[in-house]
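Write out this protein's structure.
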Amino acid sequence: MPEFTSYPAGTPSWVDHAAKDVAASNSFYSGVFGWEAEDQGEEMGHYTILRKGGKTVAGNMTVMMEGQPSAWVSYISVDDADAITDLAKKAGAAVFVEPMDVSDIGRMALFADPTGAAIGVWQPKTFKGAELVNEPGSFAWNELNTRDVPAAKAFYTEVFGWKANDMDMGEMSYTEWRLGDKPVAGMQVMPDMVPAEVPAHWLVYFAVGDTDATVSKAIGAGATTLAPPMDIPPGRFAVLSDPEGAAFAVIKTNPMGT
């Protein structure tokens, strides 16, 4: 079972969700993925840790400002959140949350890349990130959807040291982000079906045991289908929005991605 106790710098290590109604959001995702919600108390702003079989998989919190949309955010593990944020600023990022300590568990920052996609960084202390990934009910992939691929390539190469591996997918090109020789994330041009008002964003994929059954369960709990279940080389996936409008994807991966 893919359980993690640490992440190399430059690797996605955590995902969390900002909700307008955390209790309702916890109920939705617990029903879809079988998560257990654990409120961290007033000292932590009632941040909720979501677990699968007792292992941390994601977080949930209340939106921080008026008008902020409900959304999933991906976090990249870093050795120095301050240095990375400074580098991101120089590369054209707009900082939403300056580097700050989160109790004694880590240090984080949140910014938007030059194409408008929000991304977080996490400098771990006692909390390293998700304990379970790539298993049903945990995140399995993080994918940037952007309308300016060249700008995104320049930014993420400069800030995280990623290398862009462009792959011909027939009707489209897909970029696999690599850290050294290891794939760590993906990127594609924003699909034409996405409305113009939807900004660039990082889409979180959650592994599931049965894509179609999970989609049916999510729709029954109030989700909306953005892309119906379909087969792609890595597996069978679908894109949904939760009852508050936050987009996420589910995928049942093929063995070894075949």
